[in-house]
Amino acid sequence: MIAEFRLPDLGEGLPEAEIVQWHVAEGDEVMLNQTIAEVETAKAIVEIPSPYAGTVQGLHAAAGDVVAVGSPLVSFAVGADAESPAAAETPSPVDRPAEVVADTPVSGASERRAADDLRATARGESEKATPNLVGYGAAPSSGSRPRRRARGGATAVLDGDTAVREAAPHDVLRTGPIDLPLERPRSTPPVRKLAKDLGVDLVVVAAAHPGETVTRAHVEEFAARTPTEAQASTVPPPESSRVGMVTDTLPSASTVPPASPFAPARADRPSDARVTRTPIRGVRKHTAAAMVQSAFTAPHATTFLTLDVTATTELLASLKTDRALDGHRIGVLAIVAQAVCLALGRTPALNARWDETAGEIIEHHYVNLGIAAATERGLVVPVIPDADTLGLIDLADAIAELAATARAGRTAPAAMTGGTFSITNVGVFGVDAGTPILNPGEAGILAVGAVRRTPWEHHGEIALRDVLTLSLSFDHRLVDGAEAARFLADVAGVLREPGRAMLFPRPRGGDFL
């Protein structure tokens, strides 16, 4: 039977997704719940598990294609169609007793699956597969890892020099026999994107670093060993190999004139060679739409306050020496986040939403705090739910986890919705101030500038102090200038004297630490 799998709704009503990478090819055998592809929505990179166990019959889109929700993604041959003729002629081990199957070697893919099922039944572990991801996918019935069939009769161990040289014109990184993985190399989405941009095959890199997760350094090292154009003219074209890397043909040295960084642009150069055109999609497309909506809907206003935060930096220095806080990274941003949660309790207008349709102002009695994060895919604003109930340590841990997840491109779409107020830390880029644009549906966003050692008036004298600038953008429909000023003053009061946080009521009974 041929089963067609369509791209499901990945959450938040997103209408489409881009194919980032296929983990299977036509003819591959897949197990239930095995990852078959990675797709990028407007908010996150999502792994798509297989809803069937069988053979990949066909892929309906290529990497880089944008697929609408509900469109065909991949076809599977399941059931009798997935079995090979050789397997069909072999007596099934299902008819044999479980104790015999447990000790009987199996070779065919169909026999292996049947034997695994029978062993599970003998142990009482066979259960009906249940979905593990909304709308598709199911939990595997055994703890065994899915296997991918080696294509073309390739062996699992190849000579390292042959494998690497056949894959691409790179220098050999490691000699001797190496195990080439039959499953996708372990790496993060940013590393896979870097490898794709540099034309490096992660399978080859992983072969040179067996047992390790492929890192940015591994990819950059491998890319740096690519021959120059002059060298490439003497290297014969690489033969196709099971690794499947495709390399662009380099022009010969005789056809490429020496380039000078000071040479004027050639008049006969095609105009397309002087520009780069990038499709507007993914996070960039979503961010652009949100920013346009915000800028042309909410009347923005911004106010600034520069203050002495030496007491805060001294507190942080003392916390770093506290052995009870080992494993917790508490920084300025965590204290700012707690100060914001406290100040919003006294200025609820900044924690509200303008509902044009209903003709109402909706005031939130909780704080879902968004933290803007710059990633390789663009700007994302994941949310810390109920941040006003968290103490300083929990806030710091939540910010660290949120940032790590965002950098890895694994923030779930649901984690980037429902925010009531946001913070953006422009200080990490050495910037002092700015005029941030509101997240749609929010009344305020606070930009935190860099902490600088600056001559400052202190107790009637000039002294070097730690100084930063706060920039608050707000929706003037909801927030008056006086309310914005009071909010900034409350946040600044905690940063100038952290002990003043004790004077604020905890809105919902959270702890200070």
The main β sheet shows up as: 7 strands, mixed
**How much is the average pLDDT?**
75
Structural class: alpha+beta
Helix run count: 13
Work out the radius of gyration. Answer: 29 Å
What does this structure look like?
The chain is α+β, with helices and mostly antiparallel strands and 513 residues long. Helices cover 26% and strands 20% of the residues. Helix 11 (332-346) packs across helix 13 (481-496). The radius of gyration is 29 Å and the shape is globular. The chain starts with a strand and ends in a 17-residue tail after the last helix.
Protein topology:
Layout: E1 2-6, E2 16-22, E3 29-30, E4 35-40, E5 45-49, E6 54-59, E7 66-68, E8 72-77, H1 85-89, H2 98-102, H3 109-122, E9 157-159, H4 160-167, E10 177-179, H5 189-198, H6 202-208, H7 216-224, H8 229-232, H9 282-295, E11 300-308, H10 310-320, H11 332-346, E12 352-355, E13 360-363, E14 369-371, E15 373-375, E16 378-380, E17 383-384, H12 392-407, E18 421-424, E19 444-448, E20 452-458, E21 461-475, H13 481-496
Parallel strand pairs: 14-18, 18-19
Antiparallel strand pairs: 1-8, 2-4, 2-7, 3-6, 4-5, 6-8, 9-10, 11-21, 12-13, 14-17, 15-16, 19-21, 20-21
